[in-house]
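Margin note from the TA: students keep mixing up input and output lines. Inputs are the sequences; the output is the structure of the whole complex. Example:
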Amino acid sequence: MRYRYSPELEEFRHEVRCFIREKLPSSLARKTRRYEHLAKEDVQLWHSILAAHGWSASHWPKEYGGPGWSPVERYLFDEECALADAPPLSPFGLALVGPVIYTFGSDSQRQHYLPKIRNGQHWWCQGYSEPDAGSDLVALKTKAVLEGSEYIITGQKTWSTDAHLADYMICLARTRGEGKPQASLSLFIIDMQAEGVTVRPIETIDHGHSVNEVFLDGVRVPASALVGEENQGWTYAKFLLGNERTHNAQVQRSRRDWQLLCDMLKQLRCGAGCLIDEPSFGRAIAELDVLLIALEASVKRVLEDQVRGREPGTEASILKLEGSELQQAITNLAVRALEEVSGPLSFDLITEHIGLEGPCADYAAGVAERHLFRRSVSIYAGANEIQKNIIAKSVLGM
Amino acid sequence: MLDQDSLDLLFDSIKRFLQERYGFADYQRISDSELGWSQEMWQEFVSMGWLGLTVPEEDGGLGATAAQCLDLFEHAGGALVLEPLLPTLLIAGEVVRTVRHATTRKMLANGVIGGDVRMSLVPRQVEAVCTCSVIANGDGFHLKGRFPAVLGGANATHFVVSAQLGDEFAMFLVPKANTGVEVEPVRLIDGRWGATLNIDSIMEAEALLPIDARGGQRLEDLVAAGCVAEAAGVLKRALNTSIEYLKLRKQFGQPLSSLQVVQHAMAEVYVVSEQMRSLVKAVSEGLEGPDSTYLVSAAKAYLGIAGYRAVEKCIQFHGGMGITEEYPIGHYYKRLLVLGAACGSASGHLQRMAFRIRSETR
């Protein structure tokens, strides 16, 4: 089932769909379905296609080079990208750093960084978490000391997605503030080529490489690398993570995964029929649709609020919680289905052997990787337990 | 049709009225009364114009759509209203609109607006446990069947019954006063009166409503949507009541609300309650669309999958108090169970969804 929008919005959707159909290389769509850790060139290729059309920074305001879309148009654009298996663009520059820079940054930072984030020339990574500061981010220890016209930054960051590919890091470090630990945090831009920056890969259980440790050993950055004001970093970081949470609902990608999983259940043989004819699988796939429809309804509510000028507060926590659990629930069912048909999982599933063909065969080939890596979605961007703390505190007043 | 602003004003006044006049103590008093609902309260609803909400304007009503009325059910659910607003208000407009005979139509419309006509929908969902046959009998029909657990059945004056007429779907408006209509009242666990209906009755030709299978499905969707909206109201109230209690109740020298294990569980309840409200909004926007039945099924299933569990957690954190009749939380739970099962349980709706998913192009 599909929500209907106004004729204008449906026409907009149609325009986006036609564009993607014409421009998206099928090899990229296939890799996306297979959940391959895409090469930088692959993602950059799609990024530059969108950028050439003015659609890469889809949620930025017009004055900074965005298309000036409404929240609902942005949502529909993302939905069409997801349904066409377009590779997700690297979110750090576009979704996280860009808005921080155009909201809190200096004019020269805007002029220097925004265009290159938009056209995909520069990649960014985050320097937030540390070995002893994960969900408890405020405990971070990385120090930034002002010496003349430079800050000297020393510390260790971890879980930095794409740090091995990135040109810049947005880094949260401790400056010389007073009072609560939140009051001495500042946000910096670090050039990944600078002396003293070392990146070490972290291999994840899906045998992929996307996250890294980053060592900052007396890295010198100019004072102009400070974003906004000194000691206001926590405010900016919360703003940034708020954006991340809305983004992390990933409801459109989940809708696409659900479709592919449905097709998979319709092709996988089981006894005289197909897996989807089994009542337990039929019920399970319907149940996932119930949860998807509920999440889509909540996302829509937030979008309509945004159209009325009300930015999401705690709703973002709802979306992150439910969105991450749903992503996991979908791969859980995919795993159950493959186990039923072909036994224990392998990273090298040969989908022809179990009678799969078409897009859902690509999906099946990536189920093991997806399932394993998706354990992370309830952990990153503020673990789900942190989201529950936020709800209990700020909504329920507990 | 009534514009949204006037409607919002009316809903605000309904909300205020229920806050002031339909507190938990009022609910308890009414529930304990012999009738199980309050005719005085019903008359107040009538005098405030609530019952004419969906009746067409040309028949003297306000002409609101059922979708526009879902907010009212959120309020009524939260207040645990015992009076039979639920089936009547949502289907009356649709039924009155289809009646061709002018005198009958006027009588029905005025009756609904004045609170004397109360309609109850006998859903097709109970087919598995009901037998029903209808045969043409001269100018009229002979309707025969047994229908268990009809919501609002005990205090209805008219039943909207679907039946098989040859190969065709048929829908009848059956007055309770007809010879051969027998109502066995059943007290449901939420204190409301349902009924088992035994019909063996000769109907006049005009009892057949010009409603086809799609129209019949639509009526069921409307009542199911009303159940979902009430459930959203119940969940929100269950959450708020529990939070209040948890802040007051101290154990081991601190309020229960300061324990993280309790906070996290209540955050989960909050998520379910908000998702339920989002679903009500989606349903109210989608009721006129092509996927309305599927959407209503999803919302109804969500109630069974997530809603029950949420209020069960609330009871758990009340400790022993949670299972006393004196505390509201158990009453919210009982209301939720009835709403979850009326118009099809979660299992039934999931089965139907699965059927549709399977039948979509492979």
